[in-house]
Design a protein that fits this description.
Strand 4 and strand 5 form a beta hairpin. It is elongated and about 80 Å long. Helix content is about 30%, strand content about 30%. The two termini are about 40 Å apart. By secondary structure, the chain is α+β, with helices and mostly antiparallel strands. The chain contains 9 helices and 19 strands. The mean pLDDT is about 95. Helix 1 packs across helix 3 (about 100-120), helix 3 (about 100-120) crosses helix 9 and helix 5 (about 200-220) packs antiparallel against helix 6.
Length: about 375
């Protein structure tokens, strides 16, 4: 089997489901152990969850170009017709959890580095791979690398999420923020025949949900809070759990929700809204007591649309229909927008966007191979650019 296919297949076979990225990092480090001109560095976020940096220096001064891919995948779920962690090939497709999101993008970057090293590193500057942990929930790995200063010298980063959709190979320059939150409610239990002796946590939750959603809906419909590229801040209450049995006043409730934010009404203001409504609820002793837990807070990210990095991508992918677009979801762009200096950022990678997290997820092999070529050409062009 050709090198680029075996690397992708072996990455798929490492079951890094919301954990275990350390095994992927170890595999990546092994790929480069015999290359004297390639440096690898492991940066732990949690036990068994390791980020990895791979750095290849060119033969003359220039910029630093990096591809940053996450090493975790989501649960496979049931109903696969191909084993989710085998990397089965059928025609032009390789099947498996993470083929699309985003181990094909990771593999393309690794093969790019191997090819450039084998060809004598005849380019300016440096070319890096950044492997991160926990992107699917929390994006802690990218945060640790940013806050730890590991990426301060990088000039341009490509995030290889699957961006092929609607007949386009999209280059994403902006994304919404995302707040994942949990509201805990503590009431007072009583027999359902004497509800006046208890405090109904579910009823408090119902009132909180209605009030908070009305507040978010007003923001959604406020023209002053609209972003021309990303649209509007939105909120969805997605989980509610509470109560113990039919004949008891419920003394506990959990509410979970997800707010998607834009710069005009950012994540900080959305958190303030949630906390304000929690505090207002708690002023009434007849209500269940609420507390706010923030599970993830990501800012909206809006990078530049015309940069040396995007120009290098368009030139390298001139056989593709590359279109610069915003992303209404979120990704590690929300972390890298906080890097110091003027860093060029773009999200571009192999795979159909709609295949991410799906049963029988696959990558088109020719698209994966094209991405290796595009990353190589981008790296050489960007590191030479002014």
């Amino acid at each position: 089997m050709k090198r680029h296919l075996s690397i992708l297949k072996e990455l798929i076979q490492i079951e890094s489901v919301n954990d275990g990225e350390g095994a992927v990092a170890k595999y990546i480090a092994e790929l480069f152990k015999d290359y004297k001109n390639i440096e690898t560095q492991i940066v732990a976020s949690y036990p068994g969850r390791d980020n990895i940096l791979v750095k290849l220096k060119g033969n003359r001064p220039g910029k630093i170009f990096a591809v940053s891919g996450h090493l975790d995948v989501v649960e496979p779920g049931e109903g696969w017709t191909h084993p989710p962690f085998e990397g089965a090939i059928e025609g032009n497709k390789m099947y498996g959890r993470g083929t699309c999101d985003m181990k094909a993008g990771v593999a393309a970057a690794l093969v790019m580095l191997l090819d450039l090293a084998d060809e004598g590193a005849d380019f300016a500057g440096e070319v890096w791979f950044i492997g991160t942990v926990g992107e699917e929930v929390g994006m802690q790995g990218a945060l640790d690398l940013v806050e730890g200063g590991y990426l301060d010298q990088v000039d341009g980063i490509v995030i290889p999420e699957p961006t092929k959709r609607d007949g386009e190979n999209q280059a994403i320059f902006a994304s919404k923020g995302s707040i994942m939150y949990t509201i805990h409610g503590e009431g007072k239990a009583a027999h359902s025949s004497m509800p006046e002796l208890g405090i109904n946590a579910i009823m408090t939750a119902a009132e909180f949900i209605q009030k908070t959603q009305n507040d978010f809906d007003a923001i959604t419909n406020d023209p002053a809070c609209h972003n021309d590229e990303l649209g509007d801040t939105l909120n969805v209450f997605s989980v509610i759990e509470g109560g113990r049995q039919f004949n008891s006043v419920p003394d506990h409730v959990i509410i979970k929700g997800n707010a998607r934010t834009v710069p005009e009404y950012d994540s900080a203001r959305a958190v303030e809204l949630l906390q304000k409504n929690v505090d207002a609820n708690n002023e009434n002793p007849e209500n269940a007591s609420l507390t706010l837990e923030l599970n993830q807070v990501l800012d909206a990210a809006e990078a530049k649309k015309d940069t040396a990095l995007i120009r290098a991508l368009k030139e390298a992918g001139k056989d593709k229909n590359v279109q610069v677009r915003p992303l209404i979801g979120t990704c590690e762009l929300s972390r890298y927008i906080h890097l110091p200096g003027d860093v060029d950022l773009v999200v571009y990678g192999p795979g159909l966007t709609k295949m991410a997290h799906k049963i029988d997820e696959y990558i088109e092999i020719d698209e994966y191979e094209d991405t290796i070529r595009i990353f190589k050409d981008m790296a050489v062009a960007f590191t030479e650019s002014k």
